[in-house]
């Protein structure tokens, strides 16, 4: 542990369980002295999120469905009553109908295209419009993306299109909020076995492929993502904004991996 985040307060959105990327990030921030609040989607998750928050000394656990403007307003109204400012925010939220996270992209329905873009892309912009009002210079925001935004990955389909839009919105938000000294970045995480990922077709195969073909020859953990998130959200990342930072064991730089067997 360290004191990088001592005196800083932040909101973590998208914690579902102890496999969540949000959990890896929350642990790193707490370990660095941050004070945390959490938002969760739906009553079913409340009883999962509350004990996890308690482990990180937080009892500020609030409902928010990012598909609803009223729900986002309610979250920030409550937060404003409790805290006079916000130093950082983590958006670790995505959604698509899992029946469309397999098969062909071309078969994506209009309805699920709109829902996927709404929950996975627009929600970050909607949240930042509220968050900026509580933020002062030196504050930072972070969202989560995936390599399927840049290159074809099997089954990622409409989610890849949504992540491309999310990465573009990170750049536009960086410009808008940069004038007020607020930084906005994304982490492009390698595949990690979480609740959301379990909806993606052949996910075990994708994990194996990443393990065999990345320069580090392993998959990343939620703790790896947490470490990089800490850098981007702390003053160490003070000169970084609009960036999509890959935490993927180097997978995104590989054209063809070196053959490990010496006789081939
Ligand atoms: P997760 O299932 O633990 O987290 C996803 C979260 O999104 C859940 O907490 C869920 O409640 C929340 N959510 C969905 N719809 C919502 C709504 N309408 N309102 C509020 N919250 C809502 O899975 P995760 O893998 O930790 O996902 C976090 C982020 O990381 C997502 O954006 C995901 O796309 C991204 N990501 C995941 C991987 C991976 O391999 N797991 C890789 C790169 C990026």
Automatic annotation (TrEMBL):
Keyword terms, alphabetized: Fatty acid biosynthesis, Fatty acid metabolism, Lipid biosynthesis, Lipid metabolism, NAD, Oxidoreductase
Pfam families to which the protein is assigned, alphabetical: adh_short_C2 (PF13561)
One GO term (biological process): fatty acid biosynthetic process
Enzyme kind, highest EC tier: oxidoreductase
Gene3D superfamilies: Enoyl acyl carrier protein reductase, NAD(P)-binding Rossmann-like Domain
EC number per UniProt: 1.3.1.9
Pathway the protein acts in: Lipid metabolism; fatty acid biosynthesis
Catalytic reaction(s) noted: a 2,3-saturated acyl-[ACP] + NAD(+) = a (2E)-enoyl-[ACP] + NADH + H(+)
Residues annotated as catalytic: 146, 156
MF GO annotations: enoyl-[acyl-carrier-protein] reductase (NADH) activity
Binding site for NAD(+): 14, 20-21, 41, 65-66, 93, 163, 192-196
Keyword Ubl conjugation among UniProt keywords: no
Family indicated by similarity: Belongs to the short-chain dehydrogenases/reductases (SDR) family. FabI subfamily.
Xref: NCBIfam families: PRK08159.1
PANTHER family assigned: ENOYL-[ACYL-CARRIER-PROTEIN] REDUCTASE (PTHR43159), ENOYL-[ACYL-CARRIER-PROTEIN] REDUCTASE [NADH], CHLOROPLASTIC (PTHR43159:SF2)
Protein name, per record: Enoyl-[acyl-carrier-protein] reductase [NADH]
């Amino acid at each position: 542990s360290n004191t990088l985040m001592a005196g800083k307060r932040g909101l973590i959105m998208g914690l579902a369980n102890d496999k969540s990327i949000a959990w890896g990030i929350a642990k790193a921030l707490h370990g660095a002295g941050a004070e945390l609040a959490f938002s969760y989607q739906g009553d079913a998750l409340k009883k999962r999120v509350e004990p996890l928050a308690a482990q990180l000394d937080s009892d500020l656990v609030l409902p928010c469905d990012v598909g609803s403007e009223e729900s986002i307003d309610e979250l920030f109204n409550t937060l404003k009553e409790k805290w006079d400012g916000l130093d950082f925010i983590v958006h670790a939220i995505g959604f698509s109908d899992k029946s469309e996270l397999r098969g062909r992209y071309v078969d994506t329905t209009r309805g699920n295209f709109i829902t996927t873009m709404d929950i996975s892309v627009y929600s970050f912009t909607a949240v930042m419009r509220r968050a900026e009002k509580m933020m002062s210079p030196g504050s930072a925001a972070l969202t989560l993306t995936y390599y399927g935004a840049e290159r074809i990955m099997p089954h990622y389909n409409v989610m890849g299109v949504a992540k491309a839009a999310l990465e573009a919105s990170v750049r536009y938000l960086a410009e808008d909020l940069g004038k007020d000294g607020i930084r906005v970045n994304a982490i492009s995480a390698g595949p990690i076995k979480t609740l959301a990922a379990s909806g993606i077709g052949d996910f075990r195969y994708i994990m194996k492929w990443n393990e065999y073909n990345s320069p580090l020859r392993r998959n990343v953990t939620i703790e790896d993502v947490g470490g990089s998130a800490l850098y981007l959200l702390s003053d160490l990342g003070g000169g970084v904004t609009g960036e999509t930072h890959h935490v993927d064991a180097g997978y995104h730089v590989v054209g063809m991996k070196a053959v490990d067997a010496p006789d081939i």
